[in-house]
Amino acid sequence: MDALTAQAKLQVAQRTSGVPQFEVVDPQQLALLPEPDDGDLFFDFEGDPLWTADGTEWGLEYLFGVLEAGRRGVFRPLWAHDRIEERRALTDFLALVAQRRKRHPNMHIYHYAPYEKTALLRLAGRHGVGEDAVDELLRSGVLVDLYPLVRKSIRVGAESVSLKALEPLYMGAELRDGDVTTAADSITGYARFTELRAAGRDAEAATLLKQIEDYNHYDCRSTRALRDWLLLRAFESGVTPSGTQPVADGGGVEPDDPLARRLAEAAGDGAGGDRSPEQTAVAPGGRPPAAITGGKKNRSGGRISTG
């Protein structure tokens, strides 16, 4: 009850003053932040759960956004408009990370909420590539989710702890604007992009794609700014970031697990969607329930059967 009362007071103060409110409630949680490194990356996916090429396997991660550390850090958008390009984007991302880790062995990849970890695991399984690399990133603690750190360490005057709700605390005058400002806008915009491209309206399609890219870039910048803001709160609280800890052995599927190896072999490569029905049965992926699709158009232009 005390926590709810304190939360309510912050919300009232923020509504009344118009000034973002926060308080650090458990500074020791901030010790889990890794020490900053010049090689750090800030990562965000854009995905469409209703995209399908065949009505069987659903969802496309159409943009891997990667931002380097530093105010002048380079932003790298890796686009994917079909399964083959999605596979290539995954391998390009993992190659980029591997190369960067060679130069910066203490680097980390920051994201907000668990979607990025889940999507990487799903993509590695779907395409039959990079499973060991993704597993190693998870085990070694390279991927750092800021969401649980915020939930456990900070109380805010906003009504949620979404990235967008937190941004008034640390983005200053650089708040979001434009037509694409939410994940839902991104998905809707991407669906519209596919329609424009199919209709041959390439200039309009390119404009919309740039808006989605700008939105993703902002998400990555916001994640970077949030990490920096949390580090400052740790410093103010007298807490020294000691870094996330690697996952202990036994925390995931062992590389030599016989069942995992047999399933991977049975699933095959999967590049270009050339798995047999038997291989598809043991590979990750599946069909969303009819309640989600609602008979809407899929992204390849067909109809989604809900019967």
Q: How would you describe the overall organization of this protein?
A:
The chain is an alpha/beta fold. It has one domain (7-238): 2-Layer Sandwich (Nucleotidyltransferase, domain 5), CATH 3.30.420. Helix content is 46%, strand content 13%. It is built from eleven helices and seven strands. Strands 4-3-2-5-6 form a five-stranded mixed sheet. Strand 2 and strand 3 (58-68) form a beta hairpin. Helix 3 (115-127) runs antiparallel to helix 4. The longest helix is centred in the last third of the chain and has 35 residues, at 202-236. The radius of gyration is 21 Å and the shape is globular. The model is unreliable at 248-264, 277-297 and 300-307 (pLDDT under 50).
In short:
The chain has one domain: Nucleotidyltransferase, domain 5 (2-Layer Sandwich). The protein is built from 11 helices and 7 strands. The protein is an alpha/beta fold and 307 residues long.
Task: Describe the protein's topology.
Elements: H1 2-17, E1 22-24, E2 41-52, E3 58-68, E4 75-79, H2 83-103, E5 109-111, H3 115-127, H4 131-139, E6 143-145, H5 146-153, E7 154-156, H6 163-166, H7 183-198, H8 202-236, H9 258-267, H10 277-282, H11 290-293
Parallel strand pairs: 2-5, 5-6
Antiparallel strand pairs: 1-7, 2-3, 3-4
Helix pairs in contact: 3-4, 7-8
Protein name: YprB ribonuclease H-like domain-containing protein
Pfam families: RNase_H_2 (PF13482)
Region (Disordered): 263-307
